[in-house]
User: Fold this.
Amino acid sequence: MAGVSSVDFNLLIALSALLEERNLTRAGEKTNMSQPAMSSALARLRRHFDDELLVRDGRQYELTPLAERLLPDVRDALRQVERTLEARTEFDPATSTRTFSLVMSDYAVTVLVDPLLRRVQELAPGVGLTVNPIPGDMQESDRSLLQHDLMIAPLGFTFPGESEEIFRDRYVCLIDPGNSWLADGALSLASFGALPQAVATFGQREMLNQAEQALVTLGLPRHVQVTTEGWLPLPFVVAGTNLVAVVPERLARRVAGTAGVVVVEPPFGTIELIEAVWWHPTRSGDQALRWLRSIVAWVAARL
Assistant:
């Protein structure tokens, strides 16, 4: 094993990416290093540790036993370095010109972005926000979370990173006002079970939201006829059809009139949507992100 002096900070970053991604190309993307540079870094690391670290298994790479033991220590080391560097970083929202990158579901964009922008402009006129959709691979790796500052998304999915709850909503039904299954503006449990459904999908992996998980637990049938990417198209898909959709209430009431559908009390009782803000653990000490998280929480509490 080579001496510690042969390892610089950049090599430590490369080691972390290689151990977490187990793939040279993805590790290079995560660290903005070319594949030749990442291959060179892996070669240096193999010489330093006198271990292969990554070994090919078919088309994939697997970690050696030593690499498995190294991974938590490498993560802790990078977090400590970041905490040390951030301790000297002062953030003044009144004078900052930083642009934050946010990842949000279309639901969060619909209900949160407008008041969040107004609050940020009030307190930090030079600060900018960019809003991005949730990447399809968010469950697979923390790579996307590292590329952005914060994500606002529901609890209940296995997203990486740290999170804290910011607000709650409940699920309601959306239905066309001319649907023959409506009785005095209400929908019975039997009628709900008989109707075809429009549901939202999220990302590459099939994920059931809290309402769908609860409906499965209750044993209610799911006659899924239409799927959409995200929540926002659902009211417009339901309009003029015999479909029913289960959506968060804040979004439903905001767009129901425009779409020409009505909000109906759910016959299956109260099911909550718990929305949270997420961040990468290595960013926990970032004063600017702590400030932004506090603003998100302040706005969410007043929805």
The CA atoms of residues 147 and 208 lie 26 Å apart. Residues 4-86 form a domain with the Arc Repressor Mutant, subunit A fold (CATH 1.10.10.10). The mean pLDDT is 86.
